[in-house]
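Table S2 (text version). Query chain:
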Amino acid sequence: MRRRTPAPPAPLPQRHGIDPVRLRLPATGPWATVRDHLVERLPVPASLIDGMLDERAIIGADGPVTPDTPFTPGGYVWYHRDLPDEVPVPFPITIVHRDDNVVVVDKPHFLAMAPRGRHVAETALARLRRDLRLPELSPAHRLDRLTAGLAMFVVRREHRGAYQGLFQDRLVRKEYEAIAPYDPALELPRTVCSRIVKERGDLAAREVAGPPNSRSRIELAERRDGLGRYRLLPVTGRTHQLRLHMSSLGVPILADPLYPRVLPDPAPDDFSRPLQLLARTLEFTDPISGAALSLTSTRTLEAWPAGAPGRHPS
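Corresponding structure-token output:
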């Protein structure tokens, strides 16, 4: 199999902690100029592309792209997209651990991990790149925007594979905490296994028939006033896995807007109902230093404040 040549480094710096957009030109095509291709490919008016070309805002490997720059099959161009209007997430990020290789933070609810869709500059990655002045910082794994707790980022590009591999190879012990209704008829602890699929364009994932591709250990830590504080230990990492497994058991996590049913989107500035799910613990052996690390979130879930009395399961 022929290996694809890596893309050259971006000739544009980051802006607000956001990388420039990179487009790879097709290997073949009828276009005489790069402009012709961009006008056909990009979903914006031709006048906007012409304005960017006039401002020398679209850059190729050899410098700014002009209206007459010839189309180069397989070449690359870069540009900065206009940032969407975003409501600032009014909660800080707390650094739990930082060394030469990784940064582990305690992420607040409502803050996306990395730029995607309508969340771009108001993301943990963009904030940390700006605040810590670490332009190569990248996420080692995923954590839902609505989930709070521990998230790991890799400092240098050359180490991304090593730390991302920890999560891909299931070498990280992850423990979550969730608040959900207490059902005395639900026998816990138990391990939930199911096949989860999430279609492009669908907000919620769903369980379907077929070989399982997800596995979660569900334990009840405490109960009080009709609620349970649950300890969740995912073995796999499917999208929305813990949220879907809790819902399938009949005890959906409090304030979940997708499970068991999709609710209307709240206003962008409504931070009043955080999902009661917290990434509490990360434990792993650092693949670079060999050090064993055990990190714990200091956050609490508002439905179960610190020190609130509860009964342990009998």
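Notes on Table S2: The domain at 94-296 is CATH 3.30.2350.10 (Pseudouridine synthase). The helical segments are 34-41, 46-54, 124-132, 160-168, 241-248.
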